[in-house]
Design a protein that fits this description.
With 308 residues, the chain is mainly alpha-helical. The protein contains ten helices and four strands, in the order H-H-H-H-E-E-H-H-H-H-H-H-E-E. It is 67% helix and 3% strand. It has a two-stranded antiparallel sheet. Strands 3-4 form a two-stranded antiparallel sheet.
Length: 308
């Protein structure tokens, strides 16, 4: 049997098992392809907010580039620390993108551009801020736990911080889902048109992506539930099947059902703060009108009770 290069120097290697460099190369290529697709789609559809999903893809791609380097240079801490941190925090950017897409759906597919009384742009802002809180907690935990020679108590503390961060992330997802279902029910009450059908299709993609993120969160919680005594980190098949593959599928889903296809053009984007102030002080053009509260309504008057 050929000797595993990553374990050749058992005393100094950063690996506890023999990793597959072929699998690492494969996922590097796959993440690079879907990320390249998002770059092209962001340009074609002129959707500036797509930079968030591009960053998610880049982080996933670079995590596997560093994994390949770490496999080839198993005694070097730098590449091992880089891939460990990047693979743990990258999915939060996909999560943030989902929040940003949902806010734009509220803006485009509700009469008052509100959901549960929250303006569409503030809806996005609030959830992205919550995502940043989870991101910072996970980054702090992952950074503290990374490194081959890190003291055991520091690694354990970092793992606990990271688990708290992904627990927060999942709690925010549950809150988001409650509001998304409210939006969903509002869409179903409307007359079904090609526009509402497209909105529902994109909403189902958001649900699917959140499900994949939740699978990944549950995996990470189970992985570290036994602290540093878990055998799961030494079985890379779990990571590929329950972390990297779900995140890859989530990115590809947004390639297939890109929000820019369903919400095209500049008119579908959030108005600037200056534009919102102008809209609040005078009637809108092209048949738009102000709501009873003085906030701009996206569409001509419809059923005033159907504000989701």
């Amino acid at each position: 049997m050929a000797q595993c290069a990553a374990l050749a120097d058992e005393k100094n290697t950063t690996w506890n098992f023999c990793p597959s460099i072929a699998a690492a190369y494969l996922f590097t290529i796959l993440f690079a392809l879907t990320t390249s697709g998002h770059v092209v789609q962001a340009i074609i559809h002129r959707k500036g907010y797509s930079w968030v999903i591009i960053v998610s893809g880049l982080l996933q791609t670079f995590s596997y580039i560093f994994r390949v380097i770490s496999i080839k240079h198993p005694t070097e801490d730098g590449p091992a620390i880089a891939w460990f941190i990047l693979i743990l925090i990258a999915p939060l950017w996909t999560n943030a993108y989902i929040y940003m897409v949902m806010g734009r759906m509220v803006y485009n597919f509700t009469a008052t551009a509100r959901l549960a009384g929250i303006k569409a742009w503030r809806f996005t802002l609030y959830f992205v801020l919550l995502d940043i809180v989870a991101f910072l907690a996970q980054l702090a935990g992952a950074s503290s736990a990374a490194g081959h020679n890190t003291p055991r108590d520091q690694v354990l503390r970092g793992v606990h911080i990271y688990m708290g961060g992904i627990g927060l992330q999942q709690a925010f997802i549950f809150i988001f889902l409650f509001l998304a279902i409210k939006f969903h029910r509002g869409l179903l009450r409307e007359a079904q048109t090609s526009k509402t059908s497209q909105a529902l299709r994109l909403l189902y993609v958001l649900y699917a992506a959140l499900f994949l993120i939740t699978v990944r969160i549950i995996f990470r919680l189970v992985e570290y539930s036994d602290g540093l005594d878990s055998s799961i980190p030494n079985q890379e098949a779990y990571q590929y099947c329950l972390d990297s593959l779900p995140m890859l599928v989530a990115l590809v889903l947004f390639n297939i059902y890109h929000p820019g296809k369903i919400m095209p053009g500049k008119a579908s984007d959030f108005p600037s703060r200056k534009e919102r102030k102008r809209m609040a002080n005078q009637p809108l053009e092209n048949g738009y009108m102000l709501g009873a509260s003085g906030d701009p309504m996206k569409y001509p008057a419809q059923d005033p009770g159907n504000q989701y």
